[in-house]
């Protein structure tokens, strides 16, 4: 069953597989992406072979099949939507680095790119096809920057990248639209993200989290979560530039690209880019490669289980924090780190890739303490929080309370800041260190 959300379409099963709404899928958990041909028929390539099964390797050497639980179908749709969004974002980032595309700015002076609008349109289209036009989506972008004379050219580029991406939806196992989307349809898909949080079910999307990192050719993330009755119950986090060797997180992505040109990884090797997924109550999180990578490779590795680090000694812990100083106080977190006894230099990473680092066990702590007046948005945390918690980690505000996603587009009632860690013992020590440092801070 897909739950009691009445806008979900009936799932029909037949010999070929199953469908949700007007999206067609092969059998659940058994798809494998087919190569993109010059002739896109609008259907999944019938020659596509089964997707690798999602397996967990046990200590006794036996593998067992992983099941995704009550949200299996929603997770399937969400993962494919994020895979498709990652394809679009990678292409736009490459064009930005080649100076073929540029970034603009919003009214609040934050950056926005064709990818922000394009990914939002693509994910919105996929969710609407699967769960009906009435699906509730809360997302970061609107279409204000695409209006007027100044926005016309940008809008044309957004429509172009959206249709380019959707025409190749079969790469991730989805049926492409039968025709190109028009300008009005793309604008409508973007604006679908202006929904209000429903008491029953809403999707939460950050189309490009870490736009500054994205523009600079560094880390960014595509984050999609689902909120049900005020709780995050599903999370998908796409990190196209995330290195499988975590040591590279200490360096700007441009150095990794340079090193990969000098000494290319073996063909078919999963060396960067991942999509992390989980659902409430699963008790584990999974990581799979990007189906399509910017180097042109198609990776078919089976998803694997990821788990947080077992480290509980602050002296051995790696600590993440945002790169930007505009909405996070480095000086305060530096004081907390010193009080806690952290010895390693902070790992400053753009975007929700920090949540991925905790869930994968590449880091143990992430702290964010915003400056006065800044309000945290739910799309900046929903997917990451769920994935870290199901991977065995802990996420609370600085008072030790769970984050509240039931109050609308912002995390209302947040006590000072956000703390993410790999375990309860370390978490308690962080909260104590925050309390000890708070009275002397200027936040």
UniProtKB/TrEMBL annotation:
It is an enzyme of class 3 (hydrolase). It comes from the Eukaryota. Its cofactor is Mg(2+). One of its GO terms (biological process) is sulfate assimilation. The keyword Metal-binding applies. Residues 31-62 are annotated as: Disordered. Its EC number is 3.1.3.7. SUPFAM superfamilies: Carbohydrate phosphatase (SSF56655). GO terms for molecular function: 3'(2'),5'-bisphosphate nucleotidase activity; metal ion binding. Keywords: Hydrolase, Magnesium, Metal-binding. PROSITE patterns: IMP_1, IMP_2. It catalyses: adenosine 3',5'-bisphosphate + H2O = AMP + phosphate; 3'-phosphoadenylyl sulfate + H2O = adenosine 5'-phosphosulfate + phosphate. Residues 35-46 have a biased composition (Polar residues). Mg(2+) binds at residues 140, 206, 209, 380. Belongs to the inositol monophosphatase superfamily. PANTHER family: 3'(2'),5'-BISPHOSPHATE NUCLEOTIDASE, PHOSPHATASE. This is 3'(2'),5'-bisphosphate nucleotidase.
């Amino acid at each position: 069953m897909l739950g009691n959300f009445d806008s979900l379409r009936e799932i029909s099963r037949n010999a070929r597989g199953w469908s949700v709404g007007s999206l067609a899928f092969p059998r659940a958990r058994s798809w494998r992406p087919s190569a993109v041909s010059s002739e896109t028929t609008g259907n999944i390539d019938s020659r596509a072979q089964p997707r690798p099964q999602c397996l967990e390797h046990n200590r006794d050497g036996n593998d067992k099949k992983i099941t995704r639980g009550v949200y299996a179908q929603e997770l399937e749709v969400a993962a494919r939507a994020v895979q498709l969004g990652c394809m679009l974002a990678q292409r736009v980032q490459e064009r930005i680095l080649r100076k073929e595309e540029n970034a603009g700015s919003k009214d609040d002076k934050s950056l926005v790119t064709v990818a922000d609008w394009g990914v939002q349109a693509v994910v919105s289209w996929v969710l609407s096809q699967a769960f009906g036009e009435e699906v509730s989506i809360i997302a970061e972008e609107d279409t204000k920057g695409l209006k007027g004379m100044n926005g016309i050219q940008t809008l044309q580029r957004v429509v172009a990248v959206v249709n380019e991406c959707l025409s190749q939806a079969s790469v991730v196992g989805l049926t492409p639209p039968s025709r190109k989307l028009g300008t009005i349809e793309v604008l409508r898909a973007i604006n679908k993200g202006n929904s209000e949080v429903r008491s029953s079910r809403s999707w939460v999307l950050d189309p490009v989290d870490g736009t500054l990192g994205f523009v600079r050719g560094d880390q960014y993330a595509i984050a999609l979560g689902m909120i049900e009755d005020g709780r995050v119950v599903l999370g998908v986090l796409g990190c196209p530039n995330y290195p499988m060797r975590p040591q590279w997180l200490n360096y700007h992505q441009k150095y990794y690209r340079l090193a990969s040109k000098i000494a290319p990884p073996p063909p078919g090797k999963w060396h960067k880019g991942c999509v992390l997924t989980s659902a409430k109550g699963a008790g584990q999180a999974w990581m799979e490669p990007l189906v399509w990578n910017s180097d042109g490779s198609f990776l078919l590795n089976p998803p694997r289980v990821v788990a947080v680090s077992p480290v509980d000694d602050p002296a051995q812990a790696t600590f993440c924090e945002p790169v930007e100083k505009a909405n996070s106080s480095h000086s305060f977190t530096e004081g907390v780190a010193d009080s806690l006894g952290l010895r390693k230099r902070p790992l400053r990473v753009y975007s929700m890739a920090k949540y991925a680092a905790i869930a994968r066990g590449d880091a143990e702590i992430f702290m964010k303490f915003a400056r006065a007046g800044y309000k945290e948005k739910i799309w900046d945390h929903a997917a990451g929080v769920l994935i870290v918690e199901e991977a065995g980690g802990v996420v609370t505000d600085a008072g030790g309370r769970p984050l509240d996603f039931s109050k609308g587009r912002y995390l209302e009632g947040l006590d000072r800041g956000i703390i993410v860690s790999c375990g309860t013992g370390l978490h308690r020590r962080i909260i104590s260190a925050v309390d000890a440092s708070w009275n002397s801070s200027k936040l």
